[in-house]
Write a structure and sequence with these properties.
This protein is mainly α. The protein is 80% helix and 3% strand.
Length: 282
């Protein structure tokens, strides 16, 4: 028992997370996601909205540590407006909502306090683009007759990438991928994510989406790039703001945004690919 406990502690220390808590939280999230989709995709859209509202509040609190002060309500209210646009008006209204919300928030910030206007407005626009706009593609994926299969595709891609990058990194990681951005990411982890994600994507494309398996292989490579970049973007943000996690909302994961980083970057790419696949009947 002591050997098992020592091994568990060693893995947690190297990965920087509590493995047991992380697995339990991941299982709960998966249950919520697919349970809501099975009942009604609109429930899933509401859950996404709530999660994104928490995530943008986390980011805004991190901004404050970096000396950027924006009222919480100003960013939080942008989420339901943007997500509602995606649900009711598809991608065209989502784009219009981004323009409408960002310009109005810039005006509000200007009248509220012109001091550090460029810094605060830039941070606000970034937050709105990064969280509710990119998050809107989760809703676009779900607002479809084949919602479960489409969200399953996204979950498989990002989960395979994150999980096997984690496992290969813990077991074999020696060569750092981007130590000036993320000290935990290794080339060995990236290799593991490429192998697992391409295999997982091939299987889900063949058995769930009923498309050519080789399309899944290509999409898997794309997802490794988007998910890894999404993770690195958030790592760069946290390094710049001098924080470890966005919050401690999710045990073993950190904050909601820590869980969504790779998903937010991958969702638009998956949505675009599936639209092209359906349009050209590949």
């Amino acid at each position: 028992m002591e050997d098992i406990h020592s091994l568990h502690e060693s893995i947690n220390k190297k990965a920087g997370r509590n493995l047991g808590s992380s697995i339990l939280v991941s299982a709960a999230i998966i249950t919520l996601v697919f349970g809501s989709l099975a009942i009604n995709p609109a429930i899933f859209a509401v859950l996404v909205t709530v999660a994104l509202m928490i995530a943008i509040r986390e980011l805004n609190h991190a901004y404050r540590i970096g000396g950027v002060i924006i009222p919480d309500w100003m960013l939080v209210i942008a989420v339901p407006l943007t997500i509602a646009a995606a649900w009711f008006g598809k991608v065209s209204l989502l784009a219009i909502a981004l323009a409408f919300v960002t310009t109005n928030i810039m005006v509000l910030l200007m009248f509220l306090d012109p001091v550090d206007f460029v810094k605060r407005s830039t941070a606000a626009v970034f937050a709105i683009f990064y969280i509710p706009f990119l998050g809107g593609f989760l809703v676009l994926l779900a607002h479809h007759d084949d919602a479960v299969a489409r969200i399953l595709t996204l979950v498989v891609l990002t989960s395979c990438n994150d999980t096997f990058a984690y496992i290969f990194g813990v077991l074999f990681g020696k060569h750092y991928l981007a130590p000036h951005i993320s000290p935990k990411k290794t080339w060995e982890g990236l290799i593991g994510s490429v192998i697992a994600t391409t295999v997982g994507a091939s299987l889900v494309f063949h058995y769930s989406l009923h498309r050519h398996w080789w399309l899944g292989t290509m999409i898997g490579l794309m997802a490794v790039a988007t998910a890894t970049c999404g993770d690195l973007i958030e790592s760069a943000m946290k390094r710049d703001l001098h924080i470890k996690d966005m919050s401690n909302f999710l045990p073993g994961h950190g904050g909601i945004l820590d869980r969504l980083d790779s998903i937010l970057f991958t969702a638009p790419a998956v949505w675009a690919v599936l639209e092209l696949v359906n349009h050209y009947k590949l």
